[in-house]
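Why do we bother with a discrete structure alphabet at all? Because it lets us treat a fold like text: something you can write down, compare, and reason about line by line. To make this less abstract, here is a complete entry for Putative restriction endonuclease domain-containing protein. Read it the way you would read a sentence in a foreign language you are learning: slowly, and without expecting to understand everything at once.
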Amino acid sequence: MIANPNTFYLSPTEYLEWEGKQLIKHEYINGQIYAMTGGTLNHASISLNIASVLKSHLRQKGCRVYMADAKLGISPQGNFFYPDVIVTCDPRDKKERLIIYDPCIIIEVLSPSTEAFDRGDKFKDYRQVDTLKEYVLIDAQKINIEVFHLNNNGFWELHPYQETDVFSLECIDFFCPVALIYEDIEFTE
């Protein structure tokens, strides 16, 4: 989640050096840094649920699943984000120690304060990643999953899923009941 931006400009190199010394995470967008705020327990549980089922599915398949502490770089020149979950099957990312550059799937768990950004400008940045095949938005306030899939013609198609559906991630041949992603989640009225 993004809090208030700092008012000074940093180059990508300066940001990476500076951020490595900070106690909290910061995203880097067009030279500005944004402190990451904490999320809700539902947000954390949903992130863990999806990461767990993906990790189990991808075991021994050459892919890796990362959670919120993994930094995603749109390019070495920036921008840099901390998605809730990242899946990479690209051998180049196996050599990285700090930043993922070649994911096939990016997952964001939506919160009211960041939903518009996750759907808009952040997705616009994510679409610049050549290896990205699927972008997943998971609602933390009600049961709703949206999967944006890059089709063979280079267009992003939306596939919405509700409580009784089985959703899929085509690029990793993954199928999962939506209810499993929302396991142990309590919604307030």
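What the structure line is telling us, in plain words: The mean pLDDT is 93. The helical segments are 12-19, 41-58, 91-94, 115-119, 121-126, 178-181.
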